[in-house]
Design goal:
The chain is of the alpha/beta class. About 35% of the residues lie in helices and about 15% in strands. The protein has a single domain, classed as LmbE-like (Rossmann fold, 3-Layer(aba) Sandwich), CATH 3.40.50. The chain has helices spanning about 15-30, 50-65, 80-95, 110-125, 170-180, 200-215; strands at about 5-10, 35-40, 65-75, 100, 150, 160-165, 220-225. Helix 4 links the parallel strand 4 (about 100) and strand 5 (about 150). It is globular.
């Protein structure tokens, strides 16, 4: 299956938190979007890999993505090295996306910056014909390089290079986030409190969405950064 947009995320729920509105909006526009989670989030304080797997599937259904897979890399310990690059290259070549959305270039969680670098480097390497990979059936994969990689913004504030209007997809984004029931605020939970399970975390997501939206004159927005300047051939494509 060829995808228009592929989200490469370190953990289940990263895609929803950073780009859930953008994903839902582009699905609504008719684009094929998929998510590849690098890890199962097995080091997370709350929940288990099994619950995260079920929650990720529920969130994917809410967003309407065409596919969601998990590479089962080691949470907290995966690296941007040849072994892990090849795993991501196989996924990129399998789905041949035009656009890749990836983790924030830096953040409070060490996996987010690593995930950003791993995704970015794998996208470049995936276009090199002399790197040979095989699909699940042992067939040779063709080289493929996405046109662009955009990085969503996560817990730490990063100045965005551009902002996507997600006003009409905000409720979908929030419902997809809430599908990760073990991870976020639940007054009845007996699990330890974490950075993202505090009530204030959801308020931060809401306020940031409003701030980004206000910046471009809409209700809600999601910010992204780039490593190279995007081009435009029609000024009316810009708000």
């Amino acid at each position: 299956m060829k995808l228009d947009i592929l989200v490469l995320a370190a953990h289940p729920d990263d895609a929803e938190l950073g780009a859930g509105g953008t994903i839902a909006r582009h699905v609504k526009l008719g684009y094929k979007v998929g998510i590849i989670d690098f890890t199962e989030g097995e080091l997370g304080t709350r929940g288990t890999p099994d619950t995260r797997r079920d929650e990720a599937a529920a969130a994917a259904k809410i967003l309407g993505v065409s596919v969601r897979e998990n590479l089962k890399l080691k949470d907290g310990f995966f690296q941007n090295d040849p072994v892990h690059q090849l795993a991501v290259i196989r996924a990129i070549r399998k789905y041949q996306p035009e656009i890749v959305l990836a983790n924030a270039v830096y953040d409070r969680h060490v996996d987010h910056g690593k995930g950003a670098s791993l995704a970015y480097d794998a996208c470049f390497l995936s276009g090199l014909k002399k790197i040979e990979t095989a699909d699940e059936n042992g067939g040779a994969q063709a080289a493929w390089r996405p046109n662009i990689v955009y990085h969503f913004i996560q817990s730490l504030f990063i100045e965005p290079d551009f902002i996507v209007d997600v006003s009409d997809a905000w409720d979908v984004k929030m419902n997809a986030i809430k599908a990760f029931k073990t991870q976020f605020f639940d007054p009845d939970s007996t699990e330890p409190e974490t950075f993202i399970s505090k009530p204030g975390f959801m308020k931060m997501i809401e306020s940031r969405g409003l701030e980004f939206g206000h910046t471009i004159g809409v209700t809600y927005g999601e910010g992204f950064t780039v490593r190279r300047y995007p081009g435009v051939d029609d000024l009316f494509d810009l708000k």
